[in-house]
């Protein structure tokens, strides 16, 4: 990783993301760039240029003071940290700051009742526009280690590049990767022989084989299969490939990637296909 980028809005969830960044930065000796997006209201933008300038400076100074207080944390000491305030109007423009070899870590509330995490949220915009991997943190993890990672995909060739990028990052943090294929009933069912053939073709094109034998797990939906299997082996993280601007990888049908990120209690990291 070149650097870790953490967007913050001074909320509890952005602090979860910040703490995660400190753990990963310690393992990889990576710089942390902490970004606050100062969104100016339409009312301010419609004012005269002089008034706009004065009020922008005022809000900038307030943000700087709050930023300084927010970053005064013991777990950030000893790291190379770059605080950045951007005047972005649209949160998705954060993706333009990140290079392919960076990692974006974002805090999110996740699913709450009928509200869905990936329905027009800022995180969804970043995931769909970012060439860099995006790690989504929804809870405070007291014992954060990322020792075991489940990389779930349909073993199609389009996922190989995302898998290779994931392996590179996980190798840097000392994580073991478990490649997972979820087998479904009815029209999507595949025999053991068919899955093994699919696996062999996938691994023949991959730069590195997973640290554990490829797992085949049967369930009624891909979402349930990925979450249930990850919980069964006490995984620390779920990794899924995404199609970027065209949406998350659907694996078979529907927005499976969004559902996994939405309902999993584990952190989820996305890799662009």
TrEMBL record:
Family: Belongs to the universal stress protein A family.
Gene3D superfamilies: HUPs
Species, as recorded: Neptunitalea chrysea
Protein name per Swiss-Prot or TrEMBL: Universal stress protein UspA
Domain UspA, chain residue ranges per copy: 2-138, 146-271
SUPFAM superfamilies per UniProt: Adenine nucleotide alpha hydrolases-like
